[in-house]
Specification:
Blueprint (H helix, E strand, L loop, with lengths): L14 H11 L10 H8 L3 H14 L2 E4 L4 E4 L1 H12 L2 H17 L2 E8 L2 E9 L14 E3 L4 H7 L4 H14 L4 H18 L2 E6 L2 E8 L7 E8 L4 H24 L1
Antiparallel strand pairs: 1-2, 3-4, 3-8, 4-5, 6-7, 7-8
Length: 257
């Protein structure tokens, strides 16, 4: 089955560059090697186009060919770019100390994420929650925008055509369960507008609460707290929402200064 992913573009964009970036985006944790055929399926690109692009990306040092498996791996060049991005993130650098202090004091997980197409990507996540399995979430990890409080808090910041286009893409990705997911997204949008936070539990016994950080001169980020718990969503929100908003205000003040 082909992916429903499409590349948002405008007339001013370089088509070949966009397609090459979609090849790189096709790689995910747990997917070490992809053949041209697999890349074509994941990107909805013709196989001949994929073959030409993978050759270019190998010569440019972004992919390496794995002869044993007949496919391609990401080259270490990509890791170098990721490290440069993370270490150069002004907002993350301003937020990290406060995130670490809060996570340690409350014994919860605290993360900062940004959007990428239909996913949210963690810039960093400080793991102090009691469940060891949740500590495997790391910087650079993707989570689905439509299902998580991180993503829903981000969607709440969008207006008009921008939100409609994104919702259409999310519908294509989650077509089978879309009506239920759409209602949860709309609930979270109202929740953010009324209280500044939204809460969701998309994994068993894992509750996460998020708030958007909307800056005047920087891209929107989303801050969250999560933990493994037997408590209800309402109980978690009553405890963590004030702490999350306090942390948001500390970070916003530091960045705006």
């Amino acid at each position: 089955m082909k992916s429903s992913r499409t590349v948002p573009s405008s007339a001013a964009d370089n088509r070949s560059l966009l397609r090459g970036l979609e090849i790189l985006r096709a790689f995910r944790p747990g997917i070490d090697v992809l053949t041209n055929g697999e890349l074509a399926e994941r990107t909805n690109l013709p196989r001949s186009t994929v073959s030409r692009l993978t050759g270019t990306l190998v010569r440019a040092g972004f992919l390496q060919y794995d002869a044993r498996h007949g496919g391609y791996r990401l080259h270490a060049t990509v890791l170098g770019l990721a490290h440069a991005m993370r270490s150069g993130s002004y907002i993350l650098n301003q937020a990290l100390d406060a995130m670490q202090n809060t996570a340690r004091q409350l014994r919860v997980n605290v993360g900062l994420a940004i959007p990428d197409q239909e996913d949210m990507i963690y810039l960093d996540t400080i793991r102090y929650g009691p469940n060891a399995s949740l500590r495997k979430v790391v910087s650079g990890q993707r989570v689905p925008m439509a299902l998580t409080s991180l993503g829903r808090a981000y969607i709440s910041t969008l207006r008009g055509p921008e939100r409609r286009v994104l919702m259409q893409r999310l519908r294509m990705r989650h077509e089978r369960d879309w009506e239920e997911i759409r209602k949860e997204i709309e609930r979270c949008i109202i929740e953010v507008h009324e209280t500044g936070t939204c809460i969701a539990s998309w994994q068993p016994k894992v509750v996460a609460i998020s708030t958007p950080l909307v800056f005047s001169n920087d891209p929107t980020h989303v801050l969250n707290m999560s933990l493994f718990t037997e408590r209800t969503i309402d109980e978690v929100k009553a405890e963590l929402a004030p702490e999350l908003l306090r942390l948001r205000d500390i970070i916003m003040a530091a960045v705006e200064q």
